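Lecture 7 notes: from sequence to structure.
We start with the chain below.
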Amino acid sequence: MEREEVIEHLLNKKQDNTLVIKTGERGTHGLFKLLRESEVLDVQNDTTNVVSIWRDGGVIATLVIDPFQDDRRYNKMVHPAGGVSESYVYHFYNRVE
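Predicted structure tokens for the same chain:
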């Protein structure tokens, strides 16, 4: 799924906060750039590595920044834009409550 598809999915998602997106530092920067451009979605830091994505006053998703995806000891493939390739990968999970 491309970053633009992620934004489209978030714009159409209901406010139930069951979606968890896990990515590295580089993926986070790319997603934040698109969130700012959308002007509809907002972010709020919950902790250092957890960010809530908001729309219309309700949480629609949680973004988890995984430092393991940025670890050069385990991730050797370099991305053309900088950093390791795994840092740009998005993992999607549905949280069951």
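Points to note: The longest strand covers residues 58-65. Residues 25-38 form the longest helix (14 residues).
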